[in-house]
Amino acid sequence: MVELPSEPFSLLDGPAGPPPAPRLKVIVFDDDPTGSQTVHSAPLLLRWDASTLAAGLRHPSPLLFLLANTRALDPEAARRRVIEICQALVPALAEAREAGAIDRWLVVSRGDSTLRGHFPLEVEVIEQELGPFEATFLAPAFLEGGRTTVGGVHRLDGVPVHQSPFARDSLFGYGSSDLAAWAQEKSGGRIGAAAVQHLALAELEPTVAAQGALRQRLEALAGNPLLVVDAERPAHLAAFGAVVRELVAGSQNPPRRFLFQSAASLLNGLVTLPPQPLDAQGLAALCRRGPDGRRRPGLVLVGSHVPLADAQLATLLAEPGCGGVEVPVARVHRVLEGPLPDKLLASLEQEWLERLRNLLAVGRTPVLHTSRGELLCRHAAERRALGQALAAAMARVAARLAPELGYLISKGGITSHTLLAEGLGLAWVELQGQLQPGLSLLLVPAAGSSGTAPARLQGIEALPLVTVPGNLGEADTLVRLWQRLEGGA
């Protein structure tokens, strides 16, 4: 159990005045690498050993992302992963406080804004390991992507989200957009819909009266009830976040302890960030260049197979400047089920690599993508194992090309995480900002920087990687992103 400090904070000698606000670190357990899609200038950790955590907690950003990748895991493996991270955090937080790096902290379990993931498992484990908490807030609104919550009902572009293709996910499907009923369904009845509380839009208006009433309501919470948070405009989450910050990191003594299950937009309410240092043009200019000063070529990975990803891939492949290399899912599945899977899979990877290099040689951008559709598997474990094997194979191929590239685009959360953690073998990356709304540009650390620089990346400058969530964008999103990174408008 970790206690937030309840003692008054000492002040440095100086002119009399109000005490400085305690330094609050918002620690985000992210179930894939795309949850930082509304913020900038923050570290994203792929490991949680003592030294990596210490460096992340010392980072000046008020945000620290821990890329848990739990959506790729089965429930028991996800449980173990969250326990492992929590237990690593306990001494790291104590040391960071003792060193003066932070004063107070709160935890967000960032999940998919279309409600796919291990809920309530992850927040229950965090409560067991880092609690107790006075309340848990469920805030899946992702306003930048058209996901709103009004009257406790979650919608995608105005349509109840249970009517979307995402609700038919083979691993994380659900039958209701009413978040109280959804919580009851996902918890197997342990969370009764009638017990779920609701913060309505009227309570989240940025007025003095509404803020005062909201403060009183949150201050009175106890026993860790679940509260659904409505949000239709950024102002709603900003008003909610202001009250949370006051109760967690203000003069309140003892501070309140809250836990959050949310999508990305809530983070903008919980922290106050300066403007993004680089605009879209500046971010695109980070693409690596060759000795002649020309932009190096890029590589696009598409692992996501939701209908939106299919449409984006088809639009991209229609561009004359792009060429596709398909990873045949059924064939890979047969290889994994047959004799000598490692040897045969390595042969397939070499074949894909040669085809990618052939496209680069004729000046086209290669697009490495899985075949479309979802292969029917015998059970969920087989489905997860196949997905992880596909992502790992694509990551290994991309890593072999990385030293030759100017940028990478990765579509799909599991695809992106596997590329970073397994393909490139990284301990951390730094988020630079949003190249387009919701599309994060990360910098793979260059050799010699703090953190791990794999041998295959030695001698190259930082490599930009843009992560594209599987469920975000329009049909032309990938095309517009590719054009920008190629130097277009």
Word description of this protein:
The chain is α/β, with parallel strands linked by helices and 489 residues long. The chain has two domains: 24-270, Rossmann fold (3-Layer(aba) Sandwich); 280-485, Four-carbon acid sugar kinase, nucleotide binding domain (Molybdenum Cofactor Biosythetic Enzyme, Chain A, 3-Layer(aba) Sandwich). It is 35% helix and 19% strand. The protein has 14 helices and 18 strands. A 15-stranded mixed beta sheet has the order 9-10-5-11-4-1-3-2-16-17-18-15-12-14-13, with helices on both faces. Strand 16 and strand 17 (439-444) form a beta hairpin. Helix 2 (75-98) runs parallel beside helix 3, helix 10 packs antiparallel against helix 11 and helix 12 (380-401) packs across helix 13 (413-423). The longest helix has 24 residues, at 75-98.
